[in-house]
């Protein structure tokens, strides 16, 4: 496990040394936070979503992140075109199926993306990933309706994550009270994070932005996903430690971004709670 933490620290150094361009077609609720999170980790964000430029922008990017948080008929077309271009150019692709299962339109859009493009990493909460699995799951907005017990249900979660990764031919990152990442062979449970992170809109979206940044400097999608999820959780813990009264969730959001900006390989080694 110490080697995994070392590898994550090395990726962090690569991002900051190369400043990769991370193209994101994301939602307007969290677009600013995702851009700032991308900058904080050391990458460069571009949030272009016009059909007139997505193909050109994807072609010069190091990774593409697609987030389905706020959909309309214009951006859905851009997502599909950009995803196909990323595949054609060999550019790693990340999907955040926000709210999959909440409405038929949202669920159909996610399935269209999965049918028409190949993704390196898919990050979502358990409810969203269950919808991708074809299970009967009603997602409440963008919140996870399903909660699993990190102790007694861990073997079931391990099997589910591995099966989903194989089914979708992608690394699956399921985030929640305890996070699990699998590429169909390897599995890692991550116990970093704070419950207060759920009181900040967009922490999941920001985590996905980090996946895009890490994926831009490695071919190992499993390592990139573990790095992003662990890094986000560690940042949430550090930010919570630094909160001062009477600060609330708005200050917490800013402190999470600050914690990622100052994140070090040493902090990952010291604070990372990973079980592979």
From TrEMBL:
UniProt-listed SUPFAM superfamilies: Ribokinase-like
Pfam assignment, any one: HK
GO molecular function (one): magnesium ion binding
InterPro entries according to UniProt: Hyethyz_kinase, Ribokinase-like
Pathway: Cofactor biosynthesis; thiamine diphosphate biosynthesis; 4-methyl-5-(2-phosphoethyl)-thiazole from 5-(2-hydroxyethyl)-4-methylthiazole: step 1/1
Record's keyword annotation contains Thylakoid: no
Domain of life: Bacteria
Binding residues annotated for substrate, in chain numbering: 47, 202
Keywords: ATP-binding, Kinase, Magnesium, Metal-binding, Nucleotide-binding, Thiamine biosynthesis, Transferase
Binding site for ATP: 123, 175
Keyword Nucleotide-binding: yes
Substrates-to-products reaction catalysed: 5-(2-hydroxyethyl)-4-methylthiazole + ATP = 4-methyl-5-(2-phosphooxyethyl)-thiazole + ADP + H(+)
Annotated EC: 2.7.1.50
GO biological process: thiamine biosynthetic process; thiamine diphosphate biosynthetic process
Cofactor needs: Mg(2+)
Function: Catalyzes the phosphorylation of the hydroxyl group of 4-methyl-5-beta-hydroxyethylthiazole (THZ).
Assigned protein family: Belongs to the Thz kinase family.
Protein name: Hydroxyethylthiazole kinase
Gene name, Swiss-Prot/TrEMBL: thiM
